[in-house]
């Protein structure tokens, strides 16, 4: 599997960058995890929009879904131009899909994320786990036919479920919204130390810190995570690529 960070910022994008968005490619399949602000523009550096198979949205906060409706219009135009031949599948984790503002069901097929279900796309399978957050939010596990596994946390507070869900993963892409000194500020997000603790308990192969704050020294996040986790830790950045 090929993993590309399209956007990694929390809340809003820095200049010419993006909030949450991650491209997964395996053989001919191309899947986007979250579609936040700035993601649609950045995504086109790596994949043609007509070749995108599926999008998974972990929750409805704007920094994870802001560009989704623009992608719907792009899909409409590409299909009308004959560049895309099939509708785009979008899986969303929320309580009520009818409250979403998608307008063109003939071009975009919207599905609820079922925590008990497995979604197969090409030679990959996608499974899901409930997080702690102030709106319904889920983590996503991507498993390849070769036995490799990546877990993306979405937004979450510290909880046993993300530890169990991530156990034995090759790569854990875990939000790190806060520095340790801010622990307890928001129960729906993680400090870097908590992220490292989760990675250690899950015995993941390597940790990527993402959903980063717009202040402080991000190298401190790595130091704080490394006090719990002694394997490889990397900071996500726009354009980061990893082969799993």
UniProtKB/TrEMBL annotation:
One Pfam assignment: Lactamase_B_2
Keywords: Zinc
Coiled-coil residue windows: none
Domain Metallo-beta-lactamase: 30-211
UniProt catalytic activity: 3',5'-cyclic UMP + H2O = UMP + H(+); 3',5'-cyclic CMP + H2O = CMP + H(+)
CDD domains registered for this protein in UniProt: RNaseZ_short-form-like_MBL-fold
SUPFAM superfamilies the record matches: Metallo-hydrolase/oxidoreductase (SSF56281)
Annotated function: Counteracts the endogenous Pycsar antiviral defense system. Phosphodiesterase that enables metal-dependent hydrolysis of host cyclic nucleotide Pycsar defense signals such as cCMP and cUMP.
Name recorded for this polypeptide: Metallo-hydrolase YhfI
Organism: Paenibacillus segetis
């Amino acid at each position: 599997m090929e993993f590309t960070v399209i956007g990694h910022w929390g809340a809003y994008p820095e200049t010419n960058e993006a909030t949450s968005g991650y491209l997964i490619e395996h053989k001919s399949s191309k899947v986007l995890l979250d579609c936040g602000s700035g993601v649609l523009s950045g995504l086109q550096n790596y994949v043609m929009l007509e070749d995108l198979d599926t999008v998974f949205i972990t929750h409805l906060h704007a920094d994870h879904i802001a560009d989704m409706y623009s992608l719907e219009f792009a899909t409409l135009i590409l299909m009308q131009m004959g560049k895309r031949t099939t509708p785009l599948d979008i899986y969303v984790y929320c309580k009520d899909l009818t409250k979403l503002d998608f307008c063109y069901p003939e071009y975009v097929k919207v599905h609820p994320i079922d925590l008990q279900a497995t979604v197969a796309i090409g030679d990959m399978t996608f499974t899901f786990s409930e997080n702690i957050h102030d709106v319904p939010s889920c983590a996503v596990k991507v498993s390849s036919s070769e036995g490799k596994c990546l877990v993306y946390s979405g937004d979450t507070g510290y909880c046993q479920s993300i530890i169990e869900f991530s156990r034995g993963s090759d790569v854990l892409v875990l939000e790190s919204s806060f520095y340790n000194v801010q622990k307890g500020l928001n129960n729906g997000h993680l400090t870097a130390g908590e992220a490292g603790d989760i990675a250690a308990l899950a015995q993941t192969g390597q940790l990527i810190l993402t959903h980063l704050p717009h202040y402080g020294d991000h190298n401190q996040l790595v130091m704080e995570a490394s006090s719990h986790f002694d394997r490889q830790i990397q900071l996500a950045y726009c354009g980061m690529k990893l082969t799993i």
